[in-house]
Each structure stands twice: as C-alpha cells, then as structure tokens.
Design goal:
By secondary structure, this protein is of the alpha+beta class. The chain is built from two helices and three strands. Strands 1-2-3 form a three-stranded antiparallel β-sheet. This is Nucleoid-associated protein L0P57_04425.
Length: about 120
C-alpha cells in the first residue's frame, strides 16, 4: 500500500527545492546589502552626562572618542576609563542590536547556519 501525502505536499520535488534555493539566495542578497549599508552607519553614545562621547561604525569599529577637558582628573583616571568604556559599550550595543533587528526582519526569523 502506498502512503499518500496531503494536498500541497510532494509532487514538486526538484521544483520546490529550486524555489527554496532561489528564495534563500534572495534573502542572502538582501542581508548582504543591508549588512553593507549598516557597516557604513555611525552610532554614537555618551556617558557621564555627555562628558564622554563614543562613535562606532556598524562594522563595530571605534571611529572617535571625545572627552570634555573638565572630566580629565589625573587623580581619578579610573573614573575616566569607566566613562569611556560605558560610552563605547553602549554605542557597540546600539550597532549590534540594529543589525540583528534588520537581519531578523529580512530573514523572517529563518536561520539555517551555513546557509544564511
């Protein structure tokens, strides 16, 4: 006895695989374009009431760090380091989150390691 599949399943074999491959390729192209666009975008964050401002690119590279002279205290270098770290981490977090959201939107949550 031969098993029957519900309507809409089977019967397409190679055509369905080709269609899936085309869709995956289209998604990959859209993700590559979005990634390239986001890599060029700049993200800025501040800490210490705007005492320190860090700017990073979408490719997660620090582009600039601005420090107001009044927060430079030779007696408290650790506080300045903390402010710099906080600003850089927040800018990096913003860049990463936007990229993840955009990729999720493009892929519709579809995630196959090695494919996309």
């Amino acid at each position: 006895m031969k098993a029957r599949l519900p309507q809409g399943y089977g019967g397409g074999g190679a055509a369905n695989i080709q269609q899936l491959a085309r869709q995956a390729q289209k998604i990959q192209e859209e993700m590559d374009a979005a990634s390239a666009e986001l890599d060029q975008k700049l993200y800025t964050a501040t800490s210490g009431g705007d005492a320190v401002k860090a700017t990073v690119s979408g490719s997660l590279e620090v582009q600039s760090i601005e420090i107001k002279p009044e927060v430079v205290d030779p007696e408290d270098v650790e506080m300045l380091a903390d402010l710099v770290r906080a600003a850089v981490n927040e800018a990096l977090r913003a860049a990463s989150e936007e990229k993840a959201e955009k990729m999720e939107k493009i892929s519709g949550g579809f995630n196959m390691p090695g494919l996309l």
